[in-house]
Model the fold of this input.
Amino acid sequence: MINHEITMMILGSWTKIILLLTTVIAVLQVIHLVLLNHLDSLRLQKAKVLRTETEPSVSPEIEARRIFSLLEDTLRNKHLLDSTGTYRIANVNFGSKQPLFSAPVPDVALVTQCSFEHINKLIRLSKRWQGPISVAVYVDEEDLAEVLQKLALLMTCFPSFKENITVSLVSPLPAKNRASDVPPTIADWKACDVERFESADVGSTNYAIIDNYPNNLLRNVARRACNTEFVFVIDVDMLPSENLRQDFLLFATQRGLLKKNHHLEKTVFVVPAFEAKENVVPPLTKGQLISLVETGELRAFYSQLCSKCQAPTKYDSWLNEPAGAEMATLFDVLWRDPWEPFYISRNNVPLYDERFKQYGFNRISQVCELYVAGYTFSVLNNAFVVHLGFKTSSSFHEDKEADQERNRMIFRQFKAELKLKYIESSRRCH
Done:
C-alpha cells in the first residue's frame, strides 16, 4: 500500500515536471519567435539605411512612378473585402511595421476619411498633427488611376506624408467586364509642384458626388489600420489645436493611462469642436480661439444647423476657463440625445455601424453606444478642433433630408439592438 502511494507520488511529480517543461518550451518558442521578428526588423532598418547611403538619388518623377506601381500592386493583389462583399479595401503603409506580439504603440493617431477629391487636405492636416495619421479614401473605379497618381506624388513630395500617413483605399468592386482594375498610368506627372498641391481644393461635398457614401465603413477601415493605443477620429476638413497630440501624450503619461491596468478604463476625452469663417486662419491656441469667438469669426460647431447636437459640451464654461499650463480634464458630461462630440479614445471602443451611409446618425449612433456601454465623457481644457468653414443649410446636398430620414429608421433599429447587446445596462439612448 505504501509502495503504491510512493509510486503515485512519483508519477504525480513527474507529470508536474513534464507540464512545467512543456510550458517552458512553449514560452521559449514564443520568445524565440519574437526575437527573430525583432532581428528581422533591425536588419530591414539597417538595409534601408545602407540603401539610402549608397544608392544614387533618383528624380521625383522616377520615385513617384515607383510608388505608383507599389500602390497599384497593393490594390490589385493585396486587397480585402468588407463584411458585405460590396467594397474592396487595400491598406498602404510605407512606414515600419509593428513587431509580432507587441502591444499597441503608446501614441495617439489621428483618424479620418474622405473622398478622393479631398486628399490634398491631408497636407495641412499632417503638418498640424505631426504624428501618425490613418486615412481611408473612397474612390470610384473610374478615378483609381488619378487617385493612385496623386497619392504617389504626395508621398514623393512631402516626406512627412509618406512617413506618418497610412492610407487605406476603399472602392466598389470593379465591373466584371473590365479587363484591368486600374486604367493605364497618366503621363502628366508635374512632380513636386508643391504650390499646386497645397492650393488645390474642391468645394463639393462628399455626399453630393457619391451615392451611398460609406462614411462609417471608412472610419472603421482607418481605425483598424492603426497600431496606436489611442485614436482621435475627426473629419478631413478639420484642424486640431497646435501640439494637441504631444500635450495629450504627456497628459496620458502623467495619469498612467498607458499602463496595462488602464486598458479597460471606460473614459473618452472630449475635444470641443468649432467652425471658422472661410479664409480665417485657424487658431493654434485656446487664447487665439477665444479672440476669434469674440469677433464672430469662430463659433461652436453646428451652432446654426443643430445647436443641441453639441450643446452638452458646455461651450460657455469651457471658454470661460483660461488655458491651463498643461492639458487636463475640466468636467465630465452625461450624454444626452443628440450629442455627438469629437473625442480621443482607446482604439478598443465600439466600432461604427456600417449600415449608416450618407448623411445622418452615422456618428451619433456610435456615441450613443458608448453611453449605453458605460463610458464617461471627460472634456479636455486646452484641446480643440476647428472645422474650416461655417456649416450652413446651403452647404449640404439637396438629398440631405431624404438621407436623414432613411438613417433615422436604421437608428431606431440600432437602439433596439443595443438593449439586447447591453442587457445589463440601465442606460438608454433617449
